[in-house]
Amino acid sequence: MPISSFSKSLQGLLLVGAVTSTGVARAQSLDVNVTLNPELRQALAGQLELTEQALEEGIRQSFAAVYSVADVAEFLRLSANAQSFSNKGLGVDYASKPDGFLFGFAANLTANAGNADLDNFAETVAGNIDRAVPVAGGAQLSVMAGYNFAKAGLPRLTAYVNGLAYPLGFSQLDGFFWNVGAHLQLRLLGPLGKQEILEWGGFLVTSGVQLSRMTLSLSETFEANTNLAPNVPIMTRSTGTMELYQAATTIPLELTTSLQLLYFVSIYGGIAVDFQFGDAGMTFDIDSDLETNDPLGGGTVALGTGTIDVNQVGGANQALVRGMLGVQANLGPVKVFGQLNVAAADLTVGLAAGLRIVL
Fold first, then answer.
1. Is the CB of residue 335 less than 8 Å from the CB of residue 322?
2. Least confidently predicted of 61-75, 302-316, 327-341
3. How many CB atoms lie within 10 A of CB 94?
4. Which one is predicted more confidently, 298 or 87?
5. Is residue 248, in this structure, part of any structural domain at all?
6. Residue 28's pLDDT is what?
7. pLDDT confidence of 94, banded at 50, 70, 90?
8. Distance between alpha carbon 111 and the CA centroid of its chain, in Å?
9. 145 is a domain residue
10. Domain assignment of residue 150, given as a range
């Protein structure tokens, strides 16, 4: 699905990454159908040197791929994992050394392509849905507050809370997001050295609980394109119901360390295990008009119609191992950071960024 603007790429990533979950068992269904114009089907089959049956199946698969229902079970697993990943870096500081209050704001955008290779992952995130790789997405914004218990005689212990609820739409999709979390962080050893030159922050052990939800729904006609073959685009214009929701409840266990260089720069990293209790699902009931290039020339023509009826749920991995690497600029009490999270088992990448004020 070639997409030229960043906003549409983000919308597409969230479309393939949002899912629905009710926590209640329900019937599982998946039905994708296309009905083609007989004369155009015959002309296209001859142009592509295919049987009419093979052409129709190829168009059906392309139609399914453009709405991310080509591999629903994998898609839902990745979606539940992506929502859990979208919490990372929002509610905990891994590089500062507070002795009182700290406050902050952060955003996270995550993409998850499972066992796909990097080329297919990049193509799909860029909008080339004809590669048909399931890619899940997650996103969250959050505010946080923390308190180090130095004044209570416990300088190695810091508590954090974070959360935010907000509406956020993406072009043709209306969305609502919320998250909440609470963590405790214990510093083991350190800090050692001088922060003006080089200081090791010791080891930090962090754990807590994170909850988040993301819902998206179709607010108007949705248009998406893919390619059946070179110079044979499949253009879709869909109406109906597209309800997408994804949920995560995660208990992380994190071990991190940090270095502060010449005061102004801190680098931190570590490893974590996330125990995940989220699930995911989708409900589609859409009707689409399909168009393609006229094989006889003269612009686009009506190819036929398509329908998608999906009602499925799936669950997250029970445990996910990830690594994290971050850099922080120390501007007096203001700390600006970026954090990369990468899963060990799946091709999952999350990027968090934000700022904190350490009082």
1. no
2. 61-75
3. 22
4. 87
5. yes
6. 75
7. very high
8. 4
9. yes
10. 6-358
Pairing of strands 101-112, 319-331: unpaired
Question: Tokens in use for 281?
Answer: 């699902």
Q: What is the pLDDT of residues 106-152, one digit of tens each?
A: 999 998 888 777 676 666 655 555 555 677 889 999 999 999 999 99
Report percent pLDDT > 70 for the chain.
87
Lowest-pLDDT range, 84-88, 154-158, 171-175, 244-248? Answer: 171-175
CB 254 within 8 A of CB 206: yes
The answer to whether the CB of 33 falls within 8 A of the CB of 60 is: yes
**pLDDT exceeds 70 at position 9:** no
Which of 114, 132, 129, 125 is closest to 316 using CA atoms? 114
Instruction: Say if 1 falls within a structural domain.
Output: no
- pLDDT for residue 128: 58
Q: How far apart are CA 161 and CA 176, in angstroms?
A: 21
> How many domains is the chain partitioned into structurally?
1
